[in-house]
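hey so u asked for the seq, here:
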Amino acid sequence: MRLEDIEHPLFLNALSRFEDYIMLERGCSENTLKAYSSDLKQWYFYCKKMEFDPLVLNSDNIARFLREQSARGMSKGTVQRNGAVLNSFARYLVYDGITENMPMLDPLPARDKILPQIMTEGEIQRLINACEDDTPIGKRDRTAIELAYGTGMRASELCSLKLKDIDRGGGLIFTRGKGDKERCIPYVGGVRKVVDQYIDDHRPKLDKLKQPWLLLTKSGKKMRREFLWRLLRKRGLQADISPSRLHPHVLRHTFATHLLRKGMDQRTLQELLGHSSILTTEKYTHLDLEMRDFYDKYFPRT
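ran it, structure tokens below
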């Protein structure tokens, strides 16, 4: 689905203006922008196939589109996201004066309840140990994993971290998350020691292009999210951890769950994770409670 294949000038113009709107006025991240754009391209090509006008977002056409998505095996979460994106696009068309009426959408399918997967403390240690090859790459990988587990930063935040964002004297990291919201996260103890050692002794050997970023590739370029994901999978295999237990957010989920188990309150955790709503943070409480229920039910010595 390429942008140049869209043959509807008015839709193409509306899509471009909508992208500017969600980026500049709503403060959405680049990743959200890409996801919205991809979903709306799918909508356009569906309308082209069905000979609908893609700028006429009535409830019948949208319902047909979402039913087709479900029939193609899309998850409930994906179908729900597509419906939400079309709803946002429809509101924008009214806001921008392109159309006059908002469609009355049918209720979106409920998402499947998927609890975030977490790692054990033993698995975390094995993952860290897999980086101990005393090379700049090994030290960089350990720094990435220690920071992800020790601060709960998102992969995109970690890859966008610059040296100037780290207050080494105060043991603080300043980062910007979703909605371009800045927050301050402490990095302490062993994490601080690993990060500082990487900056002083190993990062200079990777910094061939004089880049501002903390995490660099072997060629000295900025590390991308996809690269971080491959790094995690590689070290996980070396640590004999199943690939099914390794995914982009696993260290963030693990950070949150382990802190709750050790007694951290939800409001403090919400601040550390950068959640705009406490409801998002509460899923980790539900995860911990559900795990305890399974423990109570199946552990033979209770």
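The two ends are 56 Å apart (CA to CA). Residues 121-298 form a domain with the hpI Integrase; Chain A fold (CATH 1.10.443.10).
lmk if thats what u needed
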